[in-house]
Amino acid sequence: MYLFIFTLLVVLFQYVNTKNYVKANDSQFKSLKEKNIRMKDSLALLNNQLNDFIMFDFRYNQEAKDYFYDRGIDTDKLTILIENELYDLTDAPGEEHPLIPYAASGGKKMQFNSIKILNHKWVIADFSDGVFWGELLIKYEITPDNQLNFKVLDHLLYPTN
User: Origin, by domain of life (predicted)?
Assistant: First the structure.
């Protein structure tokens, strides 16, 4: 008789414990499933945004790369060359930057903060002197004698508050 009662208690304990374990796992599974759905939605949104960003990026623009490939120019080296040439213009002699058409404040010199090559003709650049900042749209070309020329197409200076 005692054995029967003891066995019944053990079985009851196992049943309650297993029921609680299954309930906890089920709620955790549902929570993780919802989180997974949210993460998939976030990933899809980020993929769409990434596709928008790389649309105007020379590294992913095959037509722009083919333009230089047909001329026998290595686009990886060209990208580095363009960026270095633009950054090196900060060290050009004189008080003003040769491409940035705005005077710097307080004896400083305007310089590029970031440069993005859009395609086989245009570059967009962000510049600042620490107080004022703006952007430039620059056209670049490689001459037949492999010289790199820049021409500012448009520019803007953000207002300070």
Answer: Bacteria
User: Do 26 and 69 have their domain in common?
Assistant: no
Q: Are residues 11 and 25 in the same domain?
A: yes
Together in a domain, 51 and 65: no
Both tokens of 100, joined, read 């940035």
- pLDDT value of residue 135: 97
Angle between helices 62-69 and 75-88 (to 10 degrees): 90
| Cα diameter, the chain | 105
pLDDT band at 126 (very low <50, low <70, confident <90, very high): very high
Residue 121 has pLDDT above 90, yes or no: yes
Q: Show the domain range for 20.
A: 1-55
What pLDDT was estimated at residue 22? 85
One-letter amino acid for residue 76 of the chain: D
In one letter, which amino acid is 116? K
Say whether both 62 and 17 belong to one domain: no
Task: Give me the phi and psi of 149, to 5 degrees please.
Answer: -115, 140
Helix (H, G, I), strand (E, B) or coil at 153: strand
